[in-house]
């Protein structure tokens, strides 16, 4: 079929008085085709008016498409079983031409950014071989929209803590931040709303304020708006992670940084320069780093257990044995786990991501060999006071302490009995209780009361003692 330009040329030459043979020779087309164009007198290409093979099956195709929820393979099998002489490519072409289960994609948008105007951040799940084991990783990336400078790292999880730690590291790598940071509508940054109406989580807003930028979210379904950061994920997955074996997480992120350096220094035919060269122009427009940037950490309160460990994300880190039972402040960074007793740092460990229930022990946190973990307990103040008042209680107190352990309430009660009851009656009851190894203070108090009953609780039993004489 002749195109519209050729048909226009034929009609033009015909109007100039040339014959069909001469026109056919000049344009290199068949003489019959020239005659058909001259006969139609139109330069527009006529539409095809042939019957499609699938047209007679249109109603069945629509019904089966709904029945099989758009699965054209099942639709084709059912049509063939009903006697349709229709190939699968013919079916898919028919559905595409008539809009059955197919919607033409809208054209992609184009965005231009000034230097320092915007940076984009996002994450993507991938798989990497770490220590010989295929492991799920979260890839976090930050890209400057003008120069396309990229920085990416990998994490076992990605919470707000990892988000802030990554952004702080990436901004430090870029020596500054753009005016805005475009993100998706993830709950890591967004507290409520979507797109232009989103509300940034307070801790993320405070983090952005420290570096002088603001967070913005693109509209739902408008992924092209963050294409600067979305596009490199395919390259990270297939050009960096694929076929590589990493010793551990540190090795993975060290090599990721080296790869980002190489990509930033490489000439790009699309940009007509390297990212580093464009970054030299953009760097002067970035928000400068603050004078002091505090380290990002996650804060916990943990009690040192009986074995001398604190638990953080199912990893156990040792603390000095003298702090067993104490509540410590735990600061977890990307690299370290540090323990604080008040303002004083008492331990620092390398942060582990697994395996779970691993114990990380610092030998300095354990007592010298042979000394044991227990220390001789100091006598309670109540015990010292009782011995000072009555030294003869020492034997009974030793037995009582063996029964009650470190509880001080029984000691306070015994001290009260010593101070309130007559000394001789109390000691007599105590001697009897010690002989029978009786350390129940309720029964001891009853024994003391029986000792003093005749002296303090005498009751008159005859009426004459209470009657008044007759006058």
What does this structure look like?
By secondary structure, the chain is of the alpha/beta class. The protein folds into 5 domains: 4-40, Arc Repressor Mutant, subunit A, CATH 1.10.10; 55-97; 118-285, 2-Layer Sandwich (Nucleotidyltransferase, domain 5); 298-365, no CATH class; 381-456, no CATH class. Helices cover 39% and strands 18% of the residues. The strands form 5 sheets. Strands 1, 2, 3, 4, 7 and 8 form a 6-stranded mixed beta sheet that branches. It has a 4-stranded antiparallel beta sheet with strand order 11-14-15-16, with no helix packed on it. Helix 13 (381-389) runs parallel beside helix 15 (409-420) and helix 16 (423-435) packs across helix 17 (441-456). The longest helix is centred in the middle third of the chain and has 17 residues, at 249-265. It starts with a helix and ends in a 15-residue tail after the last helix. The model has no long low-confidence stretch (mean pLDDT 89).
